[in-house]
Amino acid sequence: MSFLELTDVTKFYGNTCAVSAMNLTVEKGEFVSLLGPSGCGKTTTLQMVAGFEAVTSGRITLDGRDITHAKANVRGLGIVFQSYALFAHMTVAGNVGFGLEMRKLPKTEQRERVAQALALVHLEQHASRYPRELSGGQRQRVALARALVIEPPVLLLDEPLSNLDAQLREEMQFELRQIQRRVGATTVMVTHDQSEAMSISDRVVVMEAGRAMQTGHPHRVYEHPETRFISTFVGKTNLLPGTVTASGARTHVALGPLAVQVDGPRFLPGTAVLLSLRPEKLHCVPAGRIDGQVRERFFLGSQWLYRVGTAVGDLMVLAPNDGRDALSEGERTGVDWPDHCMRLLPADETAGAEALP
Ligand SMILES: Nc1ncnc2c1ncn2[C@@H]1O[C@H](COP(=O)(O)OP(=O)(O)OP(=O)(O)O)[C@@H](O)[C@H]1O
C-alpha cells in the first residue's frame, strides 16, 4: 500500500463534476505534481486531500488510515495554498511558530524549530519582520517554512511559487526540491506550469477536465504522451495528420507524400493518426526525409526556432545555437529526424478501441 492513496475520488459542486474518479498513489518521500490547465480540478483534488473540501465519493488513505472524512486539523498536513495567507499582525517567527504554539510544544523547542525552518528557507535575518515588510517571494518562503516546521507527513503545495518573477521562481524551484529532499516530506504540488512540474517532480499527473489522463516520470510523459492534449500541453510538438497503411512489427503511416514506419502502439490500417515530432528532435540538413524552405526564424538565445514549410505542412525545428551562422528566411533546407523520435497518437481520441493491443 502506498503512503497516500486516492481511490476513485470524485467531487461534484452541484451539477459540476470538478474531479472524476481520480486515482493516485504517492510513495513516502515522493514529489508528485498535478499538472493541467485552469479549471481541470487540480486545486479541488488538493483541497480534498487537505480536508478543506468534502469528497463526494471515493476514498483517501494516509499511511494505511482512511482519512476520507477526517477533519483537516487531525490530518496534520503541511499546506501552502495561494489563498492561505500569512497572519499580518504576526512577525515572520510568529507565523512560522504558529503551528507549534497550537500544538503546545515547549517554548525552547519552538524557538529551535522556528530557527531551523527559517534557516532552511534562508530567512533567518528576517525573523522579526512583519509580512508587509517582505517581498512576495519572501512571503512564499515564510509560508513554506510554516508548513515545514510541523514536520508534516505530507506537504501540499498549491502554486507555491506563483508570486515570484521568472528568475526567482527558477531558483526557488531548485531550492524547494532540495528542501523537500532534505526533509523527506511526501509532497503533492499543484501547478499549471509544465516546466516547473517537470523540473522538480518524481512523477507528474497530467489532468484534463477532472480526470488524470497520464501519470509518470516527467521524461516518460514528455517522450511518450498518450494523447494529443498531453503532447501539446507538456512541451511543444509538431502534429502531422496521416493514415495507417499497414500494421506489423511497426506501424506504416502515409503522411501525404511521405511514408514512415513507427514503433510503439499499433493501429488498424485505415485509422486516422497524428504523428508527433518534438521540434528539438528535428534537424535542418542539406538533404533529409523531406525538403523545405525556412519561412520564419526566431532567435531564442541558446537556440534558433525555424518554421520550415514542407509538403507535409509547416514544421517547427529547434536547433541549438552553436555560434555558427543560422539559416536565413527563404533559404532551402532538408528536414530530418531519427526513427525513434516519432510517436503516433490517435487523431480521434474517442476511437481508442481501434488501437491494436
Ligand atoms: N466552490 C466551488 N463551487 C462550484 N464550482 C467550483 C468550486 N470550486 C471549483 N469549482 C469548479 O470546479 C472545477 C475545477 O476547479 P479547480 O479550482 O479545482 O481547478 P484548477 O485546475 O485548480 O484550476 P486553476 O488552475 O484555475 O486554479 C472548475 O470548473 C471550477 O469552476
TrEMBL record:
<dbReference type="InterPro" id="IPR003439">
    <property type="entry name" value="ABC_transporter-like_ATP-bd"/>
</dbReference>
<keyword id="KW-0067">ATP-binding</keyword>
<dbReference type="InterPro" id="IPR017871">
    <property type="entry name" value="ABC_transporter-like_CS"/>
</dbReference>
<dbReference type="InterPro" id="IPR050093">
    <property type="entry name" value="ABC_SmlMolc_Importer"/>
</dbReference>
<keyword id="KW-0472">Membrane</keyword>
<dbReference type="InterPro" id="IPR013611">
    <property type="entry name" value="Transp-assoc_OB_typ2"/>
</dbReference>
<keyword id="KW-0813">Transport</keyword>
<keyword id="KW-1003">Cell membrane</keyword>
<dbReference type="InterPro" id="IPR003593">
    <property type="entry name" value="AAA+_ATPase"/>
</dbReference>
<feature type="domain" description="ABC transporter">
    <location>
        <begin position="4"/>
        <end position="234"/>
    </location>
</feature>
<dbReference type="GO" id="GO:0005524">
    <property type="term" value="F:ATP binding"/>
</dbReference>
<dbReference type="InterPro" id="IPR008995">
    <property type="entry name" value="Mo/tungstate-bd_C_term_dom"/>
</dbReference>
<protein>
    <submittedName>
        <fullName>ABC transporter ATP-binding protein</fullName>
    </submittedName>
</protein>
<dbReference type="InterPro" id="IPR027417">
    <property type="entry name" value="P-loop_NTPase"/>
</dbReference>
<keyword id="KW-0547">Nucleotide-binding</keyword>
<dbReference type="Pfam" id="PF08402">
    <property type="entry name" value="TOBE_2"/>
</dbReference>
<dbReference type="Pfam" id="PF00005">
    <property type="entry name" value="ABC_tran"/>
</dbReference>
